[in-house]
Amino acid sequence: MFKKILIANRGEIALRIIQACRELGVETVAVHSTADEASLHVTYADEDVCIGPPPPGQSYLNIRSIIAAAEITGAEAVHPGYGFLAENAHFAEVLDECKIGWIGPSAQVIRTMGDKANARRVAVQAGVPVLPGSEEPLASAAEARRLADQVGYPVILKAAAGGGGRGMRIVRDPDEIERNFKTASEEASIAFGDGSMYLEKYLEQPRHIEFQIFADTHGNVLHLGERECSIQRRHQKLLEESPSVVMDAEKREEMGEAAVRLAKAVGYVNAGTIEFLYDQGDFYFMEMNTRIQVEHPVTEMVMGVDLVKEQLRVAAGEPMSFPSGLHPRGHVIECRINAEDPVTFAPSPGRMTTLHLPGGPGIRIDTHAYQEYFVPPNYDSMVAKLLARGRDREEAVARMLRALEFFEIDGIKTTISLHRKILRDPVFRAGDLSTRFMEGFQERQKQLADDG
């Protein structure tokens, strides 16, 4: 096991990694920007190094500064968390050249699966279903139009190197291809430094179901069940749960085996997620996330495991400790609490003048916030992940509603009230979910307001 690691991240995930390291007796180094000097991950790490000013490009994305911090503190490995440099193959390569360990998959795997067109080819070769679409990045809008005519509208344009909804456009009419191709490609170039695009058939109301996979260097690869992530806004997840209401043991095994085949096909090691679109009993590979996910606590609670501790063990060369044949126990829901206006979704940075965290049976909160904490405007707006576990979905919903009622934050706007409304929504309660859930939900909310 490592003696000391550096955490190349901030916020709740940095604090979560520190907690896992404490249990394993591993010392930690926190890096931080000047905006995060008072952050809890800085407070609780064994050492800390300031790596630059608030803009991410000058701090959390500054590879030279992070490498220097690792070298001067004697860190043996780096845990990237999620976001920032977590799926940056170049960063993993530089660490390897500097003889510093990387807590994640190899640079080659990150590069292969980070390119959506490459990932699609690997899925096809592994016998994993994919939607009709382009096998290679598209050279032009004209090529995209020819393929869309073959596939049939609607189609979706996606950034080959993208994720998180950036560089993505739905096209329903041939006349919209050229404009959307140009806009999406430019957006992808700015966000990822790569404007390459590919195209797929677009499903109108699929579910977004992802499988947590784990693999070690001893040839062991397994999945730890699914997470339903269909409730999204602009391709950004708002609420996740496990198990999915549409999943039975047979379908879980079929999709889980497909995820494991894909992981084996690329020689995957450590934690990863295979994301699928699920439509009327059929499923299609969407993408692979070569890192720990924001929503990993859902799997931890429903399966009774610690994914972050396991990441450290596997990166140190140990075999994974998960037993085979894990099955979900009860039902878990996660709500992402963001510093945003619950109606307009505009960011709401500022100081938390009041913070009261809920508790009680079945409740978990992952957060880096505290009373008087200042939410900086420079980073992602998530301030907490609230999770509720029950014997079944009904109890999990009841516990989550109870926790949301006791969750108080003043000084900034948050999405707490939005989640209360979602959990009381009749369509949500019926489990009738799709990636377009929020559109219908907002229409129903508007109708309720109009009705007085």
Can you put this structure into words, describing what you see?
With 452 residues, this protein is of the alpha+beta class. It has three domains: 4-103, 3-Layer(aba) Sandwich (Rossmann fold), CATH 3.40.50; 132-201, Dna Ligase, domain 1, CATH 3.30.1490.20; 207-451, ATP-grasp fold, B domain (D-amino Acid Aminotransferase, Chain A, domain 1, 2-Layer Sandwich). 35% of the residues lie in helices and 25% in strands. It contains 15 helices and 20 strands. The strands form five sheets. An eight-stranded antiparallel beta sheet has the order 13-12-9-10-11-14-19-17. Strands 3-2-1-4-5 form a five-stranded parallel beta sheet, with helices on both faces. α4 packs antiparallel against α5 (107-114), α7 (141-151) crosses α8 (177-192) and α12 packs antiparallel against α13 (416-424). The model has no long low-confidence stretch (mean pLDDT 95).
